[in-house]
Amino acid sequence: MTQPNLEKYGFTEEHQQIYDMVYRYSREELHPLCERMDREDWFPEEQFRSLHEVGLLGTSIAEEYGGQGLGFLEQCFIAEAMSYWNPTFGAGWLGTDSICAHNIVRNASDTVKKKFLPGFADGTVIGALGMTEPGAGSDALGSMATTAVRDGDNYIINGRKMFITMGPVAQLILLYAKTDPDKGPRGVSAFAFETTTPGFQVAQKLDKMGWRGIPTAELVFDDCVVPADNLVGPENGGVGVLMSGLNLERVLMCFHMIGVAQRALDISVDYAQQRKQFGKAIAEFQLIQGILADMYTDIQTMRALSYQLAKEVHDLEVGGGGRGEIHMRSSACMLHAGRSLMRVVDNGVQVHGGNGYILESEINQLYRIGKLMEIGAGTNQIRQVIIAQELLK
């Protein structure tokens, strides 16, 4: 694979250096883990926590808290390069270093930052996002049943969360709960929740078809006492924390998808050149060439739109997002990327033929990963609704 020339897209030499460093590290250290992760649903926890040794944890955390002090664009290119060689590991990195830690960086008080951010930076803390519930997925805020009731200087939290990536291994969860049920979505608050809190337990670990190797679970909160100081953002301000982060998350996920798609194309090209039928490599047949050309074209449109959106949201103001044109454009970006990725991995399986249908083949692993990108962080249909609502205002 020819690594992307980021300067051609208007990025800097420093961005290219970060991409290249992560690309080399992931090729040498993370790619060899893929097979076992997928086969055994094994999480390489020691390897994950050791990322701080190469500067890949706490990337957006300020140096005063032990982090790298990098920006959103740098996180995007870390996600793309890491996901090319080990997309499941890259997804786990996204869950803790960006979706959890970065939201704390953007929204938490100095008290919360001083308490938790150094742990993210040195690998002693793995984070997770606690939003989705058994009965609240696409309508996560409106249908949320988890409650946080004020009791003096604490909140008492009760409820359940479902499909929580990194939940079984997390030390800290960015947890959303209703603090004023009468206000509906506007009565939700965000908390920095420590999983050592009495009353917390992992109810069940979920066996997924893709992203195998990063644990996902249902979590239970039974009379969990959380200090009021652990609020992230103001009381009843959870919707602002969520929506601001969600726009960034969607764009960042597109970079994850680019890495997966590019890997699918590269291994398909290699396979087409090596696989022989009717006396010659299948790459010589125009029908196969057409499939490869479609895969390449989908990736180029994914890359162009995602790179542009990253520039638009990289300095999104605190509390920004969740409305207006940037909300519509980030939703469109992920809608397009998710659909494009599924076309790419589906075509990749087609190029591989019967070998692509074998569970342990790499293209099969990428296919199973791809489907989640049309479901996670808001389904394709929710993205369509967001776009249409903005268009019709």
Note down, in words, how this protein is organized.
The chain is of the alpha+beta class and 393 residues long. The protein has 3 domains: 6-125, Acyl-CoA dehydrogenase/oxidase, N-terminal domain (Butyryl-Coa Dehydrogenase, subunit A, domain 1), CATH 1.10.540; 128-232, Butyryl-CoA Dehydrogenase, subunit A, domain 2 (Beta Barrel); 238-391, Butyryl-CoA Dehydrogenase, subunit A, domain 3. Helix content is 50%, strand content 15%. The chain has a 4-stranded mixed β-sheet. A hairpin with a 2-residue loop joins β2 and β3. The protein starts with 12 loop residues before the first helix and ends with a helix. The mean pLDDT is 93.
Average pLDDT confidence is: 93
What is the CATH superfamily of the largest domain? Butyryl-CoA Dehydrogenase, subunit A, domain 3
**Element order: H for helix, E for strand:** HHHHHHEEEEEEEEHEEHHHH
**The CATH top-level class label of the largest domain:** Mainly Alpha
Number of structural domains: 3
CATH architecture of the largest domain: Up-down Bundle
Alpha carbon gap, first and last residue: 44 Å
Reported for the largest beta sheet, the result is: 4 strands, mixed
Q: Which stretches of 5+ consecutive residues score pLDDT under 50?
A: none
SS class? alpha+beta
Strands of the largest sheet, in order across it? 1-4-5-8
Q: Given the structure, what is the number of helices?
A: 11
Task: Work out the number of β strands.
Answer: 10
